[in-house]
Design goal:
A hairpin with a 3-residue loop joins strand 5 and strand 6. Helix content is about 40%, strand content about 25%. It has a domain of about 140 residues. Strands 1, 2, 3, 4, 5, 6, 7, 8 and 9 form a 9-stranded mixed beta sheet that branches. It is built from 6 helices and 9 strands, in the order αββββαβββββαααα. Keywords: Membrane, Signal, Transmembrane, Transmembrane helix.
């Protein structure tokens, strides 16, 4: 019974973990948040890569707009120094596959210098649709998206975060298979223990009730009787016939 209980408990735990992983990342190879629009007052969109609560995979930030956009990555110190006192939208948390939680930080409508005037960006790009894919195992940086033109705006730009989860999907399927196997083994041992209580037991014999062992007791009695009767030899037979004849 103990083996059955352990296997059943292990199967339930493994199945719950696999279901939890699928509920977080979904059933596809890529999971993404629902898009949200940048507020009218925000000059920039900011994402600190360290807030994405996963590792051993890649994530991508994508921003789409009707206007030309600038995207750049930098260390946190330079990015914070550049946007201090400037109105921007900041992604504070990520909940795959639901939404990216964000908040608006009030400030000036724009910084003194445009973003392309800075030389500390580690990666830059421009376009009406900009994106940046980053390794969650690497040292985290800050992603900043702004209008490319000085008179441009980031208002109503659509923001989406996506993440590669094909390994999570495979591990979840393997986890479900292992859970089914453990539950099957557990059910086998538990049913074996359960039906063992209904198995008929042999009724003891009468000799066993009196404390005697019937087979050997009978054998000893037969041996004693056989030993008491002498064997009938030739002389014994003649004496018996003579005695009978004399009486007649």
């Amino acid at each position: 019974m103990a083996i059955g209980l352990l296997c059943t408990a292990g199967g339930l735990v493994l199945g719950a973990l696999s279901a939890s992983a699928l509920s977080v990342v979904g059933t596809g190879e890529v999971t993404e948040t629902e898009p949200f629009a940048v507020g009218d007052e925000a000059y920039a969109l900011v994402l600190d890569q360290a807030i994405v609560p996963f590792d051993k995979t890649d994530a991508t930030l994508t921003v789409e707009s009707d206007q030309e956009l600038f995207i750049g990555t930098a260390n946190g110190v330079d990015a914070d120094d550049y946007l201090t006192g400037v109105a921007h939208e900041e992604i504070t948390d990520v909940e795959f596959p639901e939404t990216a939680i964000h908040r608006t930080v009030a400030g000036d409508p724009a910084p003194v210098n445009p973003p392309d005037s800075r030389d500390w960006w580690t990666h830059t790009d421009t376009g009406t649709t900009v994106s940046h894919t980053f390794d969650l195992e690497a040292a985290p940086q800050v992603i900043v998206v702004t209008p490319a033109a000085e008179d441009g705006s980031l208002a109503d730009a659509q923001v989406t975060l996506s993440m590669d989860v094909h390994e999570v999907l495979g591990l979840s399927i393997a986890g479900f298979a292992g859970a089914v196997a453990l539950l099957g083994v557990g059910a086998f041992y538990l049913l074996r223990w359960w039906f063992g209580g209904f198995r008929p037991r042999p009724r003891p014999r009468s000799g066993a009730r009196s404390g005697q062992r019937p087979g050997r007791a009978g054998t000893k009695a037969e041996r004693a009787g056989t030993a008491a009767v002498p064997s009938a030899g030739p002389g014994t037979g003649s004496a018996a016939r003579g005695t009978t004849g004399g009486a007649v």
